[in-house]
Known about the structure:
Largest sheet: none
Number of helices: 5
Helix content: 55-70%
Order of helices and strands: HHHHH
Structural class: mainly alpha
Shape: elongated
Number of domains: 1
Amino acid sequence: MTFGQAIASVFAKYVVFSGRSSRSEYWFWMLFLVLGGFGSELIDTAIFIAHGEVSVWNSPINAIFTVAILLPGFAVAVRRLHDTDRSGWWLPLALTGVGLLLILYWQSQDGTVGANRFGPQPLATTQLSAV
């Protein structure tokens, strides 16, 4: 899955908490979050510094970006946990320091080969055709 395909896939399934997501989809999404957050902050800084209104609270572009990616971000994280055969209810564990490290470890693992209780393997047809 390419960067563009991953972003399109996450936005297409922005409220789908069932099924599975591949590692590439999840990590390309995380890259998109970093780049989008950085870009939106740059735009906010360029607009509001020019008007002398520098403040943490003057980041409307970044706020809009954050609201737009919130639900799709949760959904892809839950689907990624499903790919490792774990329930999405493990995600709130990320709110703790140690839990965040555990969630990141799980998100970086290979998914279950073949179907699991959450559905078929993502990208299975792409992987077979590449062989």
